[in-house]
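Quick one: structure for this chain?
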Amino acid sequence: MSTQLARTRVPSQGRAVRTRAALLAAAEREFSARGYAATTARSIAERARTATGSFYQYFTCKDEALREIASARQAGVVTRALAMLEAAMEHVGDRAELLRDVRRRMRTVVDVVMAYHADDPGLHAVITERRHADPELEALIAEGERQVVERIAGLLARWGHAGDPTPTAFVLFGTLEGAVHAHVLGKPVVDDVRFIDALVEAMIRIASPASP
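Got it. Here's what it folds into:
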């Protein structure tokens, strides 16, 4: 997963590492609680109980901190979700067995992605808002998504998907992200159980070599 490192000082000593981590944690809470516009280097530093000058030792601006937060969050959910699907290849028997295993793992993937969206709606909203306004944040997230699609395409090829794996992978990614975003952050049409059942079955039908 691609991550843009700070253009200022990246510390290696214990105290400085802890200060920088505290500033990132404070920035995450500030963006979540106050939104993008009201969050400032000063408010982040105050929440981290350090001087505003300390913020500028590690970050050029609040956008740089937000990019790092967004990259870390994206990498975390992607690593967990794809690890579940890639592990399915370790226990392949016949196709029916594979489909049962993939279905079970896809349910876990949906749970992981739903938890990611529900974990901090305020921060998620800020990242979504700024993605359209900050070209560097957009590029960073888009590169992460491109890598996700490539890995899903690789899985589809290994599972024997008969279609074109790359656009199918993109459709799977968009289906999962779009549906979960609308269900968790919007006004859900059905309860979680029915939503997860329907989403998993839709994804299975897109991904499987043939209809299960």
